[in-house]
Design a protein that fits this description.
Helix 3 runs antiparallel to helix 4 (55-71) and helix 5 (96-108) packs antiparallel against helix 6 (112-124). This protein has 268 residues and is mainly alpha-helical. A two-stranded antiparallel sheet has the order 1-2. The protein folds into two domains: 3-77, DNA polymerase, domain 1, CATH 1.10.150; 96-265, Orthogonal Bundle (hpI Integrase, Chain A). Helix content is 59%, strand content 4%. It starts with a helix and ends with a helix. The protein is built from 14 helices and two strands, in the order H-H-H-H-H-H-H-H-E-E-H-H-H-H-H-H.
Length: 268
């Protein structure tokens, strides 16, 4: 199957643009080493992946290759995923205090575009690829309906307080429709553009850049939600997780929280 045919296959599966690009890259990487597909060559490629990348990345590449095998009718050749050893704590999650400080600094400096980028991620739990799909029309109704791979519906709720703030911002800009987060050229801002600018803003306000990246605010949403409303099944639905096991990580403390608890409790 040619790469164009594979891309066409991918586009029929409701995958995001980022995922399509990632899958194409992984399959091209395979064909840079091998000119045909066989079980032996697939096993050799998996060994090379394990030697070259971290387990999480290996599994991303394997997922892409397995999708390619499905597309050429060789699903029975699918590769097994490797085990990922989960840490006993969450790493590099922005604290609630730093989040409050960050958003307040942005608002005080009238950086309203970036204020709402941060607010929407932390108050809705959206992935950055979902954030850039939010429109003024979604703010007006109070939720965003997105379809994931397999046609599964995910509803992202916009909390009332954020909704009212965002509507006021839209009125100031005289915007009644279209994407919320657009660049100076009037096009949707890229996910890479968001990640890069967040680092710049973090340095401006002297926050550790390691905790200021798009997914950190999604983690913040999950942690803050569970602190206030301890319903793991509901959180899994809100986060769009296929399995509640994925959501269980948010029951864990960050390494900073663990250290603080140990310091407070251990007096022997």
């Amino acid at each position: 199957m040619r790469m164009d045919d594979f891309e066409e296959y991918l586009r029929g599966t409701n995958l995001s643009e980022n995922t399509i690009a990632s899958y194409k890259f992984a399959v091209k990487q395979y064909f840079q080493q091998f000119d045909t597909v066989s079980r032996r060559k697939l096993r050799d490629h998996k060994i090379w992946l394990i030697e070259s990348y971290k387990p999480k990345t290996v599994n991303l590449r394997i997922r892409a290759i397995n999708c390619y095998l499905d597309s050429i009718g060789k699903g029975e050749w699918k590769l097994q995923f490797v085990k990922v050893q989960q840490k006993a704590f969450l790493e590099n999650v922005i604290s609630e205090a730093d989040y409050e400080y960050f958003k307040n600094c942005l608002k005080q400096d009238n950086e309203m575009f970036w204020y709402f980028v941060v607010r929407f991620m932390a108050a809705t739990g959206v992935r950055v690829s979902e954030l850039v799909q939010i429109k003024a029309e979604h703010v007006q109704v109070g939720y965003v309906d997105l379809y994931s791979k397999g046609g599964k519906l995910r509803r992202i709720y916009i909390p009332q307080m954020l909704r009212e703030e965002a509507l006021a911002w839209l009125r100031e800009k005289n915007q009644v429709s279209g994407f919320l987060f657009i660049n100076k050229q009037g096009k949707r801002i890229t996910t890479r553009g968001i990640a890069g600018q967040l680092k710049v803003m973090a340095q401006r306000y002297e926050i550790d850049p390691a905790v200021v990246y798009p997914h950190s605010f999604r983690h913040r949403f999950a942690k803050s939600f569970l602190d206030r409303f301890n319903d793991l099944a509901l959180l899994a639905d809100l986060m769009g997780h296929e399995s509640i096991e994925t959501t269980r990580i948010y029951l864990r403390r960050t390494s900073t929280e663990q250290q603080a608890i140990v310091n407070r409790v251990v007096d022997w």
